[in-house]
């Protein structure tokens, strides 16, 4: 039964990943999600085989059947990554309400990671409507509505303060409105404690990447991508890391 459930997650997750790839390409370009899938280079209609998640890329050698140019690598990467992350959630929560809640959040986070990484934009359609979804989930999970509200208010407030201080000190724009909306949405799903941990961890990860980059002074940092990585870590390990930290300081 366990293998059967994993197989279902892999199949459904790869199709969800295929859809995420469409979102990543189309949302920043304001292309309709209901139009036919076409090659990014020659605009010819993709054949059915090209649209089968993972298998289609293998059968077509990762090339458009018309112009023979390579299909962007991130399509198959997302199709593989999505079921892997869903499996991580299943191993943690099994098929519970939390599994479906965090699967939705993970779906959004994957799409946001790549849109922010490639296009430096976090579409509002991926954050604002689902801030409400996070609040609604709180009626049925252990988080509770008050904690959900505290999560999105505190998360967005912290980022707004950081953005204002950064602009005052450097006279440059730092965090964008998309980052603030993203952390507000994440806060509605995670509550105050894990949202605060997510902000701390994303900042830590961001500083590490900037430090190790040889060209960090010229590299625009897509901070939303760090928030996404920190969010998934918070979902799986956040509470355990916080408890371990408190124990190290003798706080129960």
% residues in beta strands: under 5%
Number of discrete domains: 2
Mean pLDDT: 85
Structural class comes to mainly alpha
Q: How much is the radius of gyration in Å?
A: 19 Å
Q: Give me the count of strands.
A: 0
Give the SSE string.
HHHHHHHH
Coarse shape: globular
Biggest β-sheet description: none
Structural overview:
- By secondary structure, this protein is mainly alpha-helical.
- The protein is 68% helix and 0% strand.
- It is built from 8 helices and no strands.
- The protein has helices spanning 2-26, 55-59, 74-93, 97-119, 128-137, 145-170, 177-212, 223-248.
- The mean pLDDT is 85.
Which descriptors apply to this entry?
8 helices; mainly alpha; 0% strand
Topology:
Blueprint: H1 2-26, H2 55-59, H3 74-93, H4 97-119, H5 128-137, H6 145-170, H7 177-212, H8 223-248
Helix pairs in contact: 1-3, 1-4, 3-4, 4-8, 5-6, 5-7, 6-7, 7-8
Brief summary:
The chain contains eight helices and no strands.
């Amino acid at each position: 039964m366990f293998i059967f459930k994993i197989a279902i997650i892999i199949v459904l997750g790869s199709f969800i990943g295929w859809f995420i790839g469409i979102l990543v390409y189309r949302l920043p370009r304001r292309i309709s999600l209901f139009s036919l899938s076409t090659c990014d280079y020659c605009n010819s209609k993709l054949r059915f085989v090209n649209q089968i998640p993972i298998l289609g890329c293998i059968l077509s050698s990762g090339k458009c059947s018309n112009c023979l140019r390579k299909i962007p690598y991130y399509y198959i990467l997302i199709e593989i990554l999505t079921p892997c992350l869903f499996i991580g959630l299943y191993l943690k929560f099994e098929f519970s309400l939390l599994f479906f809640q965090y699967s939705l959040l993970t779906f959004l986070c994957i799409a946001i990671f790549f849109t922010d990484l490639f296009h430096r934009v976090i579409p509002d359609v991926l954050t604002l409507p689902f801030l409400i979804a996070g609040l609604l989930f709180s009626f049925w999970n252990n988080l509770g509505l008050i904690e959900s509200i505290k999560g999105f208010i505190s998360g967005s407030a912290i980022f707004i303060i950081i953005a204002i201080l950064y602009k005052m000190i450097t006279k440059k724009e730092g965090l964008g409105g998309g980052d603030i909306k993203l952390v507000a949405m994440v806060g509605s799903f995670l509550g105050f404690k894990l949202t605060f941990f997510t902000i701390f961890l994303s900042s830590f990860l961001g500083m590490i990447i900037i430090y190790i980059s040889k060209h960090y002074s010229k590299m625009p940092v897509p901070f939303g991508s760090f928030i996404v990585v920190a969010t998934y870590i918070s979902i799986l390990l956040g509470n355990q890391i916080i408890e371990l930290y408190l124990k190290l300081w003798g706080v129960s």
